[in-house]
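P.,

For your records, the input lines for the assembly:
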Amino acid sequence: MTGREYAWKRRPGWWLRNRRYLMFQLREAGGVVCALYGLVLLNMLIQLRAGESAYTAFLNLLRTPPVLYLNIVLFALVVWHALTWFMLIGKAQPIQFTRQPLPWKVVFGINVLLWLGVSGAVVYLIFGGI
Amino acid sequence: MAASDVLFRVKRYRPESGGRPTFQDYRIPYRNDMVVLDGLNYIKDHLDPTLTFRWSCRMGICGSCGADVNGQPRLTCGTYVRDVRKGAVTVEPLSNFPILKDLVVDFDDFLRKLASVTPYIVRKDWGDLRKEYVQYPEDVEAYRQQSLCINCMLCYAACPVFGSSPEFVGPAASALALRYNRDTRDEGADARLAQLNTKMGVWECTFVGECSVVCPKDVDPAAAIQTLKFLATMRHMRRLLMPGSSSR
Amino acid sequence: MERTSFDIVVVGGGAAGLRAAIAAAESDPELTIALVSKVYPMRSHTVSAEGGTAAVLRDYDSFELHALDTIKGSDFLADQDAVEFFVARCPEEIIRLEHWGCPWSRDEDGRVSQRAFGGMSVKRTVYAADKVGFHILHTLFQTSMKYDHIHRFDEYFVTSLIVDGGACTGVVAMNLRGGTMVAIQGKATILATGGCGRVYEFTTNGFIKTGDGMALAYRAGVPLKDMEMVQFHPTCLPGTGILITEAARGEGGYLVNKDGERYMQRYLPGKMELGPRDILSRAMIQEMKAGRAFEGPYGLYMGLDLRHLGAKKINERIPMVRELVEKYMGLDPIHELIPVRPGQHYIMGGVSTNGKGETTLPGLYAVGETACVSINGANRLGSNSLSECLVFGAACGLAAAAFAKKKASYPRGTAAREALKKEEARVFDGLLSRERATETVSGLRVEMQQLMERDVGIFREESALADACGMLGKMRDRFAAVGLADKDRVFNTELTAVLELDFMLDIASAIAHSARNRRESRGAHSRTDFPQRDDANYLKHTLAFRTDGPPRIDYMPVTITKWQPVERKY
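Structure tokens returned:
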């Protein structure tokens, strides 16, 4: 006379139900993209080592429209991935000078500024000269 | 549909009949200040006494009445119908849990996980039972937020990781582990971190963050888990680099 | 095969039940203890208590004073030996709970804080913001997980006691999730199922407070003591009945009528808003009758003014008050008045016990709101109830443990098997098979609640009480026709509602008859036809015994030690 429990089943497309789940999936996808980017950079080094013509051919490939558009999309995912990590820092390791730890938004802001600063310095080094 | 009516679409499941859960529609009178729980009680008292759901305090402190309302895990006693009544109010049992009957789910698994994080003060020497341990207001504030968990399970229903990995210790149990770790009177932080520093402990979490969004008490379990990851890692490094040192 | 025979069976998983189980578990690791509850323990109604829990902790206070406040608050109906026992043990319970991790609010020096409360002459109410019940319950529940020999039976609804050879040897319970009945035997049984507020229409109590333990003892021949003593809390939100803690007044809140006047100066100029609850509730009703109340969609109400306390104090000391008022009334107490009106909150009466929780049935104990020792007499002071659960929970747990240890063998199985068969027949073959017709469980329940609200409320008089007694008798007959639509055995909450209504009809009848027979006014029991306190005839406890008809009313003396009854003036 006892009943049966009904095992819960996950609905396909669960992550489309809710904006935050979608952002999460994109962020996770961004991790894969970061790895791919690493491979691209690695390949760039390999082409560089292979000689000037190989390297130039590789750079030309990077300049073609499809690859350019692809890179823009992948760059956006990488930036999103980085931003979500910055949002995490304030919660994972609270920095505390007073009674309450620094709000995560403040920590996020500081990290973004530092990131922009470092990125700016790198760009200057590469394009502006030392 | 009259403005004075509202349509409730409730997921039903009869364990003794078997089969699959199905929706059943009920049209009930609408009041501006009614909550979803009021609707469920109206259905049970006047339309369909077989509708089964848990509730008790009706003030958001006992944690009994969790359900998926229009796809979001919510406390039915704290969800105003006026906020969710576009078309119909859909009420289903909390996601990620086995369904016992209608809106009643089985969460014994959570109680096992709660027990597994040693949710009580651990001390070697209990000291003088005639005097309280000194604890300053800022010490209480350090763990106050995590101590507010009412065990309502909305965070588990919101967590897609728990949905695919049922062994995952989960948000609420982790938050309570942190509550005790941060309590200055406790000495059991080391053992709890060891327990949580496992795949199905905090490391299964990928910081979706939905648990903290749905928590009705602002416990912020997502932050608690990330903090535990950090603390567990620090403990691990300390043990590797400085064996024999105590943690705290 | 799940164990079904224990040294101690505790029914109810709130503060009192958990404290008793822990006390027994700590006293002897060999003892086996069953904790049987119709809900998971953290859902118990203890969780909703807000204000605080009283104890003598500082030099400006004394046991003498706490006892005097309590006895005077009880309008001298409390048993003074029990009160003396009680006040002396509150401090160690607070400390023990603190050691177990309870997050008491602290002073700047790190010591446990105390605040003012109604009827207390000094600040002795220990608090945890305004979620004291929540923190106490979760601390106790989580601490109980330390003990392997506490076996929990979650969502088991106890339907009757097992009585064998003139002693209680356990309970018969319905496993809600399995849909079966089981006999859980115990050398000692402790009832800790809380109060019975749901016999009233407007109550702070949760849905589960249906007086189950009281009815179980009542049906086994144990008398219910002082059932007419029902406490109405002055500050409940209109409509929902949600409690706004006395701590709001303890922290300095005012009660005002529609003219903005602090009307308590007309009734209790000495203590104003910090008077005892019975006086405040009556004052509110009188203001309403005099036409000085606000009017709203849920009737008349008064205003609770916290605006002068400031945001900082409100957010630190009574944050949940703000949350509740914002959520359920859409108002911000920092800037607006809180609408409040009196509602049923607590029952001083209950299963008659002595100071160790023992009832007249050997092997049966009762503790907490379920029991009446009595330390609360005719009116309970706020913040004494949680302390009572802790002190007597511990005392009862130890007493039951001692009793169980003296019994060499477990109860014989035959009585349990018979009781189980009888209950299966009564519940599954009897109640469950009845068809739902004109008489419904929800319809009859609402009628009973409205009747109690109208005739056995704050102000009572003979004809209304007589009417109530008669109607309740008729409702008992009508109950026989209540049928069910849900025929399943698994998690049948219509069936549990029927069982609870069955219990509540007994309890309501005990309350009404006890009230009718007390022809005086004392504490919370206020009779417009007998407005004076009558020590000559009624300085005694009412006892209600169950019969097939109306309850048999008897009396027993109050124990007086040091404090001779005087006029209760504040």
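Two observations worth noting. Residues 230-345 of chain C form a domain with the Flavocytochrome C3; Chain A, domain 1 fold (CATH 3.90.700.10). The longest strand of chain C covers residues 180-191.

Regards
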